[in-house]
Amino acid sequence: MNLKLICFSLFIAALASNQYFLNLHVLFFEYLNNFNPKTFSLPLISTLISHHHHDEKKTIKSICDYFPLDIPPPDTNTTSFICVDRNGCCNFTTVQAAVDAVGVLSPKRTIIWINNGIYFEKVIVPKTKPNITFQGQGFTSTAIVWNDTANSSHGTFYSGSVQVFAANFIAKNLSFMNVAPMPAPGDVGAQAVAIRVAGDQSAFWGCGFFGAQDTLHDDRGRHYFKDCYIQGSIDFIFGNGKSFYENCRITSIANPVPLGARVINGAVTAHGRASKDENSGFAFVNCSVGGTGRIWLGRAWRPFSTVVFSLTTMSDIIAPEGWNDLNDPTRDQSIFYGEYNCSGPGANMTLRAPYAQRLNDTQASTFLNVSFIDADQWLQPYNM
Ligand SMILES: *[C@@H]1O[C@H](CO)[C@@H](O)[C@H](O)[C@H]1NC(C)=O
Ligand SMILES: *[C@@H]1O[C@H](CO)[C@@H](O)[C@H](O)[C@H]1NC(C)=O
Ligand SMILES: *[C@@H]1O[C@H](CO)[C@@H](O)[C@H](O)[C@H]1NC(C)=O
Ligand SMILES: *[C@@H]1O[C@H](CO)[C@@H](O)[C@H](O)[C@H]1NC(C)=O
Ligand SMILES: *[C@@H]1O[C@H](CO)[C@@H](O)[C@H](O)[C@H]1NC(C)=O
Ligand SMILES: *[C@@H]1O[C@H](CO)[C@@H](O)[C@H](O)[C@H]1NC(C)=O
Ligand SMILES: *[C@@H]1O[C@H](CO)[C@@H](O)[C@H](O)[C@H]1NC(C)=O
Ligand SMILES: *[C@@H]1O[C@H](CO)[C@@H](O)[C@H](O)[C@H]1NC(C)=O
Ligand SMILES: *[C@@H]1O[C@H](CO)[C@@H](O)[C@H](O)[C@H]1NC(C)=O
Ligand SMILES: *[C@@H]1O[C@H](CO)[C@@H](O)[C@H](O)[C@H]1NC(C)=O
Ligand SMILES: *[C@@H]1O[C@H](CO)[C@@H](O)[C@H](O)[C@H]1NC(C)=O
């Protein structure tokens, strides 16, 4: 048993003890910090539950005694509330059951309150269910976790632990994880998405995204990410979305590369804009990029790939050339890779690829605030 598994067992043990609320946060945080898809295996949750159910009865009267009395709050004219708790203390025990209970094309917002814990399930929010909010208890204490890969799900696009096709989806304070094994160099079919965001007008506040290759499928539509933690190795923010990432911590878990070696073993983004008629792009503002490996900021998945990093700190894991055109020089004329007022050793642009642009104030302005995603038309403040 290695450190990560021990951590995980502690975490599961805490779920079943009367120390639940005292220890969970700390253990979950340790667990996430140690998370390494290379060594992680999905525990058989049914065994864990039945095994610990016994202890539960001995130590406390009912785990539901700890459940907050004011959850779910009463519905209002504009909002319905339902809740999810693994231990059966509220409306549903799985997130998918709660989503299934939401009415089709409801004009009201439905807030799905999700209690602390790891929800081992694959979740789909279909196109017919707009206006859903997932409200977790913190990205280090609430997570939806699955382990499909491109191979196991007939393609990367279907491997997401969570797949959102609906518009106006909001997630607050929870994590999306794919715990499939981290691909070894040269592996085929090991891409493993944590979430696919395919609906327009989606917002993520204080969320975590954990995986290795292809963690966050920012597929299409306008999306907002604030105060998020995003972890992966290869192309771990990819897709054709038009998205604004603010104050996010971006962490590479690519294998450490020996000093002086020229190998590149990861990339933060693979933006998929295919033509100049589209207006998609990824804008990062006030983020940090760090972790391990030797990686590019982006590779040109499609010819008009558009990515800008502004006011972002970058550690020395960024390769000096910064970006990659997928060995297709015809893309150099059409891709748009910009950097604006970034800092840290990885932000030195002296040896950047010739097509990488140091943006001036005017050029950068489009990418610096939420008007990039037409936020005035749809983005509600966090507390709404
Ligand atoms: C997911 O985890 C389960 C349980 O450990 C395992 O049986 C299954 O093979 C895994 N799937 C993939 C695609 O790794
Ligand atoms: C909610 O709807 C009821 C009945 O239609 C109405 O009387 C009430 O004023 C509404 N409340 C708000 C806050 O809009
Ligand atoms: C959820 O649980 C609350 C409290 O028990 C209850 O009032 C409400 O009707 C339930 N909602 C659904 C959709 O089951
Ligand atoms: C619900 O979704 C529809 C379609 O996406 C959208 O037009 C509407 O503004 C949303 N309503 C709320 C309350 O978010
Ligand atoms: C939830 O997310 C908000 C917005 O990012 C953040 O300010 C807040 O601290 C988070 N709360 C918890 C409990 O994680
Ligand atoms: C995916 O499937 C292909 C074809 O069956 C196989 O060669 C490859 O090893 C598989 N990849 C993984 C990561 O299991
Ligand atoms: C930049 O991000 C950091 C860390 O997330 C945050 O503490 C700080 O307030 C942000 N600055 C601005 C101007 O938003
Ligand atoms: C960006 O840097 C330039 C000079 O390098 C400076 O004039 C400008 O004020 C900075 N802008 C911001 C928003 O920090
Ligand atoms: C940037 O990189 C170049 C080339 O490696 C180097 O000569 C220069 O000193 C670096 N600048 C800073 C500020 O580190
Ligand atoms: C910014 O760059 C653009 C494109 O190169 C150029 O047309 C413009 O004059 C520059 N603006 C400033 C203020 O330097
Ligand atoms: C956002 O930036 C645009 C320039 O692209 C500017 O016109 C607008 O005033 C800014 N909006 C906010 C809210 O700062």
TrEMBL record:
Pathway(s): Glycan metabolism; pectin degradation; 2-dehydro-3-deoxy-D-gluconate from pectin: step 1/5
Function: Acts in the modification of cell walls via demethylesterification of cell wall pectin.
Pfam families the record matches: Pectinesterase
GO molecular function: pectinesterase activity
Ranges of residues in domain Pectinesterase catalytic: 83-375
Record SUPFAM superfamilies: Pectin lyase-like (SSF51126)
Catalytic activity annotation: [(1->4)-alpha-D-galacturonosyl methyl ester](n) + n H2O = [(1->4)-alpha-D-galacturonosyl](n) + n methanol + n H(+)
Catalytic residues identified in the record: D235
Cellular compartment(s): Secreted, Cell wall
Alphabetical keyword list: Aspartyl esterase, Cell wall, Cell wall biogenesis/degradation, Glycoprotein, Hydrolase, Secreted, Signal
Enzyme Commission number: 3.1.1.11
Lineage of producing organism: Eukaryota, Viridiplantae, Streptophyta, Embryophyta, Tracheophyta
Protein family according to the UniProt entry: Belongs to the pectinesterase family.
Chain coiled-coil ranges: none
Recorded superkingdom: Eukaryota
Keyword Hydrolase belongs to the record: yes
Entries under Gene3D superfamilies matching the protein: Single-stranded right-handed beta-helix, Pectin lyase-like
Keyword Membrane appears in the UniProt entry: no
Name listed for the protein in its UniProt record: Pectinesterase
GO BP of this protein: cell wall modification; pectin catabolic process
